[in-house]
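Weekly structure sync, notes
Attendees: PL (lead), two postdocs, one rotation student
Agenda item 3: pending single-chain targets
PL asked that the sequence for the first pending target be pasted directly into the notes so everyone works from the same version. It is reproduced below exactly as submitted, 425 residues in total.
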Amino acid sequence: MTFKRIVKAVNGICADTFKNQLLNISEEHDRFILLDSNNYEGYPYSEFGFLCAFDSISEIEANNHKFDIQELTDYHRIISDWTFGYISYESLQTDNDTFGLFFFQPRFVFFQKEDKIYAAVHPEHDNDETINTLINQILTKQTNQKQGDKITLKTDMSFDKYQTAFKSIQQHIRRGDTYEVNFCINFKTEVKNLYPVSIYKSLITKTKAPFSAFLRKSNTYVLSASPERFLKHTELKLIAQPMKGTAGRGKNQAEDIDIQYELSVNTKERAENIMITDLVRNDLSRFALRNSVCVEELCKVYKFENVFQMITTVSSKIQSKSTAFQALKAAFPPGSMTGAPKHRTMQIIKNHETFERGLYSGSIGYITPEGNFDFSVVIRTLFYNSETQVINFAVGSAITDASVAGAEYAECLLKAETITKTLES
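Predicted structure, written out during the meeting:
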């Protein structure tokens, strides 16, 4: 049975102002998440302008064993309520002490749908009086725009080291072990004075990414400017949108038009995208109704604030809501961040990368009381631990037989540029 919250409209304030104010209160709540589409126009299957949840009524966490989808399925069935959280990349194959699977049932949920903001209140904990008090506290919270120290992150993967790993990966490709490998490099440093909210606001101003997320779990902060959806479930339909193919923006509209066209017809970039599309189609077909897997949009180039991205939209129909959770497990981790075939490629990745991905390349998202869900791919994302004072992020690119080391390394640096410039400023 679906749990029923009291839904109350929040009137008289614009969404952007309210989002900023919600971020300002995040330091007062050790369970906090904001998922923000930044009102990106034209992205298929967009539903909410933003979703924000904080304070935990109940939660489920698995850091020391592999991702078991049944645990999450059972947990959501019991609470039948809004659920927010993440699944780390490595929770599928290894133990990981930093990130695993974590979801919580929040006391407070705010969301924007169309042009209206709503509060979804748990009737056993709150009423009109308490929610009105909370909204007033949110609106009157003073902005904390501390800048902190200038931060310079460098990767331990020099081009020489990258080239060595690149050659080894291509040997695997030429032996037939894999067709495509998403190889990533990590940037990391220690920092004393860092203010996650200020950095996140600056990052989102520069990117306006449609799957942005600000997450706090005690001492751990996740600042994500992801442009990519992993998997969405709505009613009895699944939608995946693998992203492969990147190009930088031009200096003017004329350059943009040329770059967008060149990316759309680039044989190598299309081949990389189609390889992952085939992988995703296979993942979804395992639980799809017969003949229902459909490529709705192939290799379409979307424009973002600082890059162009090639995206394919794949959908399928399923028999039941429980099947959607099984499909989530089957499709995990996102194929755009592994390569193909998935599991052999993940072994090759682990043998060549210099860091554990953790939540990077995993997913952040929500589950509605009805059991629908939407999860992003965790890329273009900063991770900060306020206890250890370590901050890091990773970027990657797809290596195929046709790839050139210098071009792939340059693509990694292009993807890192917005984050590094945000921290340095």
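Discussion points:
- The first strand starts at residue 6 and ends at 10.
- Residues 405-424 form the longest helix (20 residues).
Action: rotation student to compare against the earlier draft before next sync.
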